[in-house]
UniProtKB/TrEMBL annotation:
GO biological process, one term: DNA integration
GO molecular function: nucleic acid binding
Top-level division of the source organism's lineage: Bacteria
Protein name (Swiss-Prot/TrEMBL): Integrase catalytic domain-containing protein
Source organism of the structure: Roseobacter cerasinus
InterPro entries: Integrase_cat-core, RNaseH-like_sf, RNaseH_sf
Gene3D superfamilies in alphabetical order: Ribonuclease H-like superfamily/Ribonuclease H
Integrase catalytic domain: residues covered: 1-53
């Protein structure tokens, strides 16, 4: 799904994610490494760093 979004809108420089288990998975990290955008994790306990909160 992320590959489709990148095809439609272009590749971002980075994707900001929380530190939850769904975002620290090896599969997502491998995808980001191969696809190009980096992953930027917010600090634990700092949800205000998420732009959509």
């Amino acid at each position: 799904m992320l590959n489709q979004i990148i095809a439609w809108r272009g590749k971002p420089l980075a994707i900001r994610v929380e530190n939850g288990p769904e975002y620290v998975s090896a599969r997502l990290q491998n995808w980001a490494e191969n696809a190009g955008p980096g992953l930027i994790y917010i600090q634990p306990g700092k949800p205000q760093q998420n732009a959509y909160v």
